[in-house]
């Protein structure tokens, strides 16, 4: 067994799990770790950022683009707290992100001495956000703890994890047995009797539907087979865009899906929390619901199902495909209805000017494998719900947390994960200012993303809500912005401002061909709200009488 200090054990453990990139910022309690990263710089890339939240979002973008674990470091205390907004976003989006954070010296933990970066109970803070958080007290514990962490992040419902280690423990050396990476995710086999029941109901249904969520992102093959064999329309949640390409005749977006639901009699719900359909679409008592979910606890939320298949999306869908009888099903009239619904939704979307033209320019400039990383802004919301997607992992967002400032750093992480893929970050002016310092990271590491800023000098979504629900009593929504073009140029990024969708497409096409970051500013005025077209549980709750 090699003699390794705690920091070296962490780096060797990351390498054993196939990690090739670590994002983060150095700091005194992480000095041994960064020294170990330096020693292994030919085997693992270290990307330093300008804020811990940026590092965590980059790791999340890396995970979203690849399905692999994204890793970042943060100093303890304020550094770790800075990152927690992004870590909670990774929870919401179901992404495997590993936070490696330091601690105060091990013999001072819990003493409340006022040591730099001290928290009263840092592990408790982490455990309030993630399901797996542990401390390594000795180097020999690191390999097993990392194996547990990777298993927790990748088996079952994916999500982030936190490993902390005190600086004196990072520097302490002892014999360490470096463990091999854990076996791939193993889910239970679906119950054969339940599969038969599911097949019977799907074949007998007059108006069935498949609702596919982010948990089915790797199950595109059996999903396509099942949909085609039984002529079942597929409704993709915003986390599953492109799993069944939008140019497939059985593919429908979430906006069309909520109207198709009005006729559904059997729904196969795969790898999704099912929150909006379960709580806002209605008709649950009229629909036979078949759930496939890898997490037993989640399969009964937010409503009970008629058939529960606790297994992975690919195993569950493939088992159903393998059990389908040979005779076909004629659902032409039902599919005609679905297509009419989709056309009606498209016509409503066309009225949300200028969003359709801007989204059309975005789609025209990007190849099919190009990725849009969408922040919480009007165009970003339009993109996530309505931009055509032809491959999975090509429309990325911040999950249910709706975290401002996500898009720029997540786009940088996605680009570093796959440098050959064109990446566009769509940012609102308000959200962009949360993480604009990561423009420096883009230049420092020459990460060739295109940053698009929609500039309406306001927190546009909130301003729209205040106009519609509070008599236009606007407060705290108007913004004083910098000259974004000059700002981008000050970082050394070629930047421009465009006044039309046509010019936007032309500039975006050129920017995507550049081997360097680019920034495009698009001024917009008041924009119609896409949220009026979406049935969803009210975020503000229901006021009791």
CATH topology of the largest domain: Rossmann fold
Task: Enumerate the strands of the largest sheet in spatial order, edge to edge or round the barrel.
Answer: 3-2-4-5-7-6
**Got a strand count?**
20
Average pLDDT, rounded to a whole number, is: 94
CATH H level of the largest domain: which superfamily? Answer: Thiamin diphosphate (ThDP)-binding fold, Pyr/PP domains
What's the Cα radius of gyration? 24 Å
CATH architecture identity of the largest domain: 3-Layer(aba) Sandwich
Low-confidence stretches: none
Distance between the termini: 68 Å
The helical percent reads: 25-40%
| Oligomeric state as shown | single chain
Helix/strand-derived category reads alpha/beta
* CATH C-level name of the largest domain: Alpha Beta
Beta-strand content bin: 15-25%
Anisotropy-based shape = globular
User: Could you describe the largest sheet, including whether it forms a barrel?
Assistant: 6 strands, parallel
